[in-house]
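Now for a sample.
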Amino acid sequence: MAISDEFLAMVGRDYSADVARINSELNLKGDGLLVDYVPPHTFVGNIDKMENGNCILVIGINPFLWDDQRFERANIELPIHCLANYRNSGDVNALSDWINWQKEYFLSNDINATHFKKISRLIGPRYFSLTHGDDNWRDTLCQHIVEVDIVPYYSIKAQINDQKLAKLYRYDSALITHLNLIKWVIKKIQPRWIQVNGKAGWETICQELLNGEGEIIDNAGDKGSEIMVGHTNVTGNRIPVLLHKFIGGLGGANSHIQRNQVMDSWDKWLSSNS
């Protein structure tokens, strides 16, 4: 992958200062505090091997902070080492080990398997059945999914207020830089659609990608399976966008019935709005 200016702009920031400011602006506390010692999460998934129109960009809320040696090696030690070498040398190739780890994340032992199995099993059987087969959840992720987060900084719990976040996205330089990176990813992989996992991202995505024109759908009369839908024109072409509540989270689409309701509502809307 050619390292983009958008990626360099994001990882080149003073992320400790960015985190301190965003924590204050969003009034985050306790386990919801973003930590200032982990470099920002930019993306995971092999963006160089995605087939345009045959992949999905999943947008989460913010990455989970693990208390684990594997997490520290992959998410703290590796990127900090690469960033230090890049800053000292000015050679973008110094970032290659970090980027390659991100691209191979779904194949690695570092994957948050509990979380990403849910994503794969939500999408795979219905839309990528040849890849997913009996339960080839890793293959589905590797071939068809790229993931980013709307807030690129880590915390133990996601406690982000969607309205405060959307307001902050209008002027915070770190979040604007991150949005530019997300838009670059969208243009690069040309996804079949964009799928937002978590209510805390709805207001921001509606504002920044849907021009404030998101439509709420609750076909099942069940708040857990309520969705927002719309289109974004980031690439110059209309790309459908699905926003649903967090899979496996409080008040989210937790049962298999609710998850099927989410995707049934999405299919119905897509059939007349693709």
Summary: The mean pLDDT is 94. The radius of gyration is 18 Å.
